[in-house]
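Weekly structure sync - notes
Attendees: PM, LS, DV (DV joined late)
Agenda: review two folding runs queued last week.

Item 1: First target. Sequence and structure tokens pasted below for the record.
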Amino acid sequence: MKKQFLNIAAGILSATIVLTSCLDDDGGSATTSHLIVGIEAESGTDILVGADDLMSGTISPVGRGVEQPAWMSFYQVGNTLLASGYTSDNMTTGYRMIDSVLTDVGSFITELGVYGIAEIDENTALVAGVTRAGFEDRVFYTIDLNTMSIISRFNTKIDERQEEGLVAWPTGMIRQKNKLYISYYLMGAGELEEAPAFSTPNSNQARVAIYSYPEMELLNIATDDRTSDIGLYSGENAIMETENGDIYSFSTSGSASYFKPVPSNPSGFLRIQNGETAFDDSYFFNFEEASGGFKINQAFYAGNGKMIVKMIKEDSTNPIYYGASFGVYPETPICYLAVADLENQTVTPIDDIPANGGGWGVAHMVHDGRVYINVCNYKTETSTEAYIYEIDPETATAVKGAEIDGNYAKSINLLY
């Protein structure tokens, strides 16, 4: 496969990037931009594409962009964009802007599949390596992003329960000074008949493992019985840090979010105060109650105490809802967008965005007080659509932006 590049232009006007064009070695056109959008093309191939504007026109990978080797997950750490294979090998490739060119800066290979990457600092990442069945260790790799090399490995079970047939699946990581917080949920390892792979028979509790960092000694497993396991499969930012250093988690309690059996505790947010190693007993945001029966599917922090929430209203007794949030283009969409105010514990629907499809995570970018997010919709049996929407978290309003020429956007990133 030929190597293609995306070049950046010199100027940024507000959130819109002014572009120029150049030629690659084979004479094809290469788009230039600070804005990089990961798109699953209609062929199923993932491509990193430059975008001149997120709010108008069409963002297309046709005949341009950096083609990826397989179905990928994308993570940004500082100014490095990491592309990690999901359906192929365990190779992760880094991209950075060097001399105004989006450049492949190298790759590293992990023994286990990558299911989460956290920023230690702008030059260092922590990568979670996990198997999807069995009782193997979870391996946390420290990566030097300057050399794209593994500089240390740490093996841990986190919270293995072989007698129950359960293992810990990481759903989020935050390094805060000399502590590392890892949220997880307990899922069946597929080794016992009563705990099939991916089942969730013991999920009526929220759990966060807290390690010293960089020593990686387990300090505590914080638990809370007011809600359920934190995060979901493929949801890798289930704990988030706010401006004052407090850490918030979300729990789905949802069949549509791949929990079976479904936890009986409500969907909601918990808090660990800055520097603490236990949940705050005085804080529980019962999202399910505040929203009138919706459950959190995915959430991410938009700043100023606001969460953008992809929420679902489901009938947990109806098997058709099981795993339904992973359907990108369902004929009957069940996902809605809302703003959750963490301080006032209110939920405001974003009525400007229609009911929409789900997916494996939510492609989004927070920039200058606005949120840019991918939204997918079913049109007909042979026609689908995906757009970028701009959300104002303070007013819970949104504006439809650029159309995605392809299946959907998998990542939206701004690199310098």
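Item 2: Second target, run right after the first with the same settings.
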Amino acid sequence: MNTEVPLEQKINLETARISWHELQPYFARGNCIYIAPELDLVTIAHKIATDDSAAIALLIQEGKISKVSDIMAQQFFDNNQSMWAVVVKPYVLVQPD
């Protein structure tokens, strides 16, 4: 019997809400990746985990995926923004709630 959880389901189970303040250490290491609110975080995490580079490159070009900038980080910090987050090593994908 195969008890391995499908990757997309595993990602979904590992996705959680977290405050931006709790994400500060990951931002400081340059590991936070912003995912635009209109995108499905689990789907994007799956594309990154499976190295769907063509789809990811297009989303980066459209500005829907990017490293969290200093300006974004300051806004998130000032608002104590609640985020959805999931780890796709070495990154923490974050999406404003």
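Discussion on item 2: The beta strands are 16-19, 32-35, 65-67, 82-88, 91-96.
Action: LS to circulate a short write-up before next sync.
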